[in-house]
Amino acid sequence: MFLKSSWYSPRIQRQATVARWGHFGQPVLLFPTAGGDAEEIERFGIIRVLGPLIEAGRIKIYSCDSVGGQAWFERNKPPEYRMWMQNEFQQWVRHEVVPAIRMDCRSDDVPIWAAGASIGAFHAAAVVCRFPDVFHRALSMSGTYDLMRFIEVDTPTDAFRVASPLHFVPHLGGHHLDVLRRRHIHIATGAGRFENVGESWRLAQVLGQKGIPNYMDDWGPEWHHDWITWREMVPRFLGQWTEPPSGP
Q: How far is 168 from 162, CA to CA, in rounded Å?
């Protein structure tokens, strides 16, 4: 059921790993948190709580090293490099990870869902908004969407603008926007310790202003920015989204 593969990519200028759990079902790319690797979600119990859905063949989980998230906090690198890497990471996902997932699923056009928490939520929303021809749905949990507050400069580069939904979604139009309006982004967050509900509302507002289907789901102050919260959220929503049809 578990498989992982690593390769060197000139896009991200390093070797990175993609892991898979399951044999059948809807493919879901679950992004790690900022410093996480492809197996972080197993160490923190996400795969355990998703076990029934995986074993039932309803979902097939993939994860990858958080190259973009890791680079964002490499203070020894200049801000321009770290912003550039966000775009390259998403390009790596689109042009290398997606083909690997589709080859594993033995389908050239299977739609993929994205999910993630914290900065993983940022990437889940971003890949659906950037690549709606490939990614059809996102579950973004406890999201950190305004990454500029973590860097030492005030002005984003062009490379970062095209990678950040808060920056590029307001300018979308044409066929790209038409396709994106047939997708869905579920924005789930707690309101407890270390959560920033305002960031989730800001993303929901940006999406809503462009007519992009989304739902802002505030779980309240008893839910914190923590794996305990995400272990509750992930199986609930993926279970609902893959619920077998009821009888006649």
A: 6
Structure tokens at 192: 């407890």
Question: Are the C-beta atoms of 101 and 27 separated by less than 8 Å?
Answer: yes
Q: Is residue 246 part of a domain?
A: no
Structurally, how many domains does the chain consist of?
1
Cα separation of 164 and 145, whole Å?
A: 8
Task: State the sign of the Cα–Cα–Cα–Cα dihedral 82, 83, 85, 89.
Answer: positive
CA-based radius of gyration for the chain = 17
pTM > 0.85: yes or no: yes
Q: Which domain holds residue 178?
A: 2-241
Beta bridge mates, 21: 2, 61
Which pair of structure tokens corresponds to residue 70? 């890791």
pLDDT tens readout for residues 221-230: 999 999 999 9
Tens digits of residue pLDDT in 58-102: 999 999 999 988 887 888 889 999 999 999 999 999 999 999 999
